[in-house]
Amino acid sequence: MTLSKSLSLAALGMSAAFLAVTSTLAVAASPAATTIATRHANFKKMGGAMKVLKDQVSSGTIDKPAAVAAAKTLAATGRAQVGLFPNGSGASSGVKTDALPAIWTNRAVFDGQMKAFIAQADKMVVAANTGNAAAVGAQFKAVGGTCAACHKQFRADN
Amino acid sequence: MPRSAASTTRIWDPTVRLFHWLLVALIAFSWWSGEQHDMERHRLSGYAILALLVFRVFWGFAGPRTARFTTFVRGPGAVMAYMRGLGRRTGHAADGHNPLGGWSVIAMLAVIGLMVAAGLFAVDVDGFESGPLADYVSFDQGRTAAELHETVFNGILALVALHVAAVVFYLVWKRQNLVRPMITGSRKSVDGETPAELRWSPVLAVVGIVIAVAVAWAVSTGFRF
Q1: Would strands B8-10 and B186-188 be described as parallel, antiparallel, or unpaired?
Q2: Angle (CA) B211 B213 B214, round 5°
Q3: Beta strands in chain B (DSSP E)
Q4: Which of B128, B144, B219 to mutate to test the interface with A (most CBs of A within 10 A)?
Q5: Count of structural domains, chain A
Q6: A37-83 pLDDT, tens digit each
């Protein structure tokens, strides 16, 4: 009775220790995973901001504070993304990502695309501040163009 | 008395045939434009498919007998009886859809309807391109709709493959050409058959087309008139 009880306690303790070690390993083994998760969440945030602008453009009525906030999200998050593509954070890390190896083999072009996006996002803030539907619509297209251009080259299409 | 050249039976009215071949062309074009990321044309193609679906459902109640759901949607007994005769190397002179094919039509309409519905709410990864109803949902919901839109395409491919396989089976095994009637509207009569008239109203057809175009147009604007 006591023997089996202490045995099962020991087994429980060991499995807890095992769990602790493996989970620590899982975190420690992949700083890439954190980076990838962060930039993925950021891109989703940018997608959401794009949709706010898109919905306003298609409805034809600009809600200025919301449009400005969305544009600022694009500009700020775009700047944060630049630092979230360190070497080794591609699919080779074993973490699921749509980031293509070309990002790291063609780094100068990738960085240029990022810069182009940020420049257009800054202009988006200016356009949103006018509150003018035509201006917002035109600049929205320009921003979207830089998204598409970069995705075409550096994001897996699936 | 030799059978005259005119011994054919009309089974498909012109609108059903036009529906069929336009749907074939538009599904092919939708796939192609989607692959090309030509979203402007992809959306237009989707609206056209929506109009076709609306018309076909309308015609399922207002069309000639072979187009009506009440005629071609049959119970399990009829389907089983039909399937028992599948192995026989004789043609099957169905008055329109055979009992199993009727269910294939329902499956096609349902899956293509789901495809269109998902596309209407879909948002692309950039939040740049979207279906006309995407502003009624969040970015994440729109992304889910886009993923569903991609998944359901496999269902369409599976049904198309099954449909083509059935047509080839009829051609090779039963020596019966099902494609020609879908072009000409008529199949060969079987001995002793008295061809029944395929009555349909051009006025109702026009009404159906007007409803279909109006619905597709309203949806395409996102109900912003």
Answers
A1: antiparallel
A2: 65
A3: 8-10, 186-188
A4: B128
A5: 1
A6: 999 999 999 999 999 999 999 989 999 999 999 999 999 999 999 99
Residue at A88 is within a domain = yes
Inspect the interface and report whether the beta carbons of A51 and B127 lie closer than 8 Å. Answer: yes
Cα B105 from Cα B174, distance rounded (Å): 21
- Per-residue DSSP letter, B8: E
Chain-chain contact of A48 with B126 (C-beta, under 8 angstroms) = no
Domain extent for A63: 31-154
Q: Per the structure block, which two tokens stand in for A16?
A: 């807890």
Q: State the Cα–Cα distance between residues B219 and B54, nearest whole angstrom.
A: 12
Q: Residue A70 maps to which CATH number?
A: 1.20.120.10
Classified as helix, coil or strand, B9 is strand
So where are chain B's domains?
Answer: 10-91+199-225, 120-173
Q: How many other C-beta atoms are found inside a 10 Å radius of the C-beta of residue B189?
A: 15
ipTM surpassing 0.85: no
A61 → chain B, closest CA residue: B224
Whether B224 contacts chain A with CB within 8 A? yes
Supply the pTM of this predicted model: 0.86
> And the tokens for B22?
């336009």
- Helices B14-35 and B39-62 pack at an angle, to 10 degrees, of 160
